[in-house]
Amino acid sequence: MGGEDLKTAAAWAKDLGVPEKKLKDALKTAGIEPDAKKGVCAYYSKVSAERVKKTLK
């Protein structure tokens, strides 16, 4: 995994220019599990975020 870019759904929403709630709902609907977890925070890779973004259009 190494230098993989992991961010929270909120951070990805901001980076991708989509509403945070829409992205979080899409992740849940798509059944995409977080790539990493630290406590209660879920972190997703760019691949996961991009995959979900495609479903938002």
UniProtKB/TrEMBL annotation:
<protein>
    <submittedName>
        <fullName>Uncharacterized protein</fullName>
    </submittedName>
</protein>
